[in-house]
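look at this:
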Amino acid sequence: MATPPAHPSRSPASPALLDYVLRTMQVTTQLCSRQRHERDYACEYRTVPDYNFIYVIRGHAVWVVAGIEYELPPEHLIIVPPGVWHHGYCRTQAITLGSLHVLATLPGGQDVFALLAPPMLQEIAPESRFDRYFRSFMDEFDRPSAEERLEMFPGWAHLITRELFRDSSRRGLLRPRPEEPVVAALLDDLDRHLDQAVSLDTLARRSGYSAQHLNRLFTRVLGTTPLKYLAKRRMQRAAELLRSSTLAIAEVARRVGHADPDYFSRQFAAQYGISASEYRRQAGAKNPV
C-alpha cells in the first residue's frame, strides 16, 4: 500500500494550537456524494478546489492521486488536496463510499489542513467517533428531500472535520509546518500564565524575536496577534470558571490576569454580550458563598 511521505523532523501539534484551531476554524462544504454500486464503479480523472474526503465502508477501492495508487479497503480514508489530479476504481464489484468536500480556515483565512498537515491516507478505527460521524453523514442520502439533505451537510462537515483533527492528534499524526513550533510554544506559554500581566515586548523577549516580527509571524500562522489571542483566551477561561466554580467575580478576574474587576466586567460583556453575573446565572452555576 502506498503511503504519503513522512515528516520525521516535524513536532506534533501542541494542545494549545489544536485547541485554538478547533475553537476558531470555519468549515464549509459545497459538494457531497454517496457512491453505492454493485459493479464497475469508477471515478473519472478530475481536480477539485477543496479537500476531498473519500471514505470506504464496503468493498475495496484504489485511489490514484498525482499518479500514485493508494489502497482503500473498508474504514480507510484518503484526503485529496485541492488542485491535484486524481481518479479511483474498484478492486471489488460492490462498493460503498462517501465523498465529502471541505475547506477549513482560520479567521485570517489560513488553511487549517496546510497548518496541521494530517496524513493523506489514514486507517480509521471501526466504531470510532469519526467512523460513526461519517456513516451518519452518508445516511443523510436516504432522506427523500434534497432540501433537507442540503440543510444537514454543513453540520456534518463541521463535525467530521473537527473529529479528523482530534483523532489525528490523539494518534500523534499531525505534523505542523516548521515555523509553527514557535507559535505553538507561545500559545502553550500564554495558556499556562493567563493570570499574569504580559506585554508584547515580554513575549518577544521570551521567543527571541522582535515584537514586530513576532506579531507578523503570529498573524501569518493564526490570523490574530498574540495579545488579541490572550485577551480572548482569558475571557474563555473566565467563562469556564464562572460555569464550574463558586469563585467571586473579582477572584475570577484576578485568575485571568485582571486586577481591576470593573475592567474585567466590561471586557467580559464585550465578548459574551452579557455581564459575568448574568452569564453565571444562565449557565446554572452556584452563586459564590
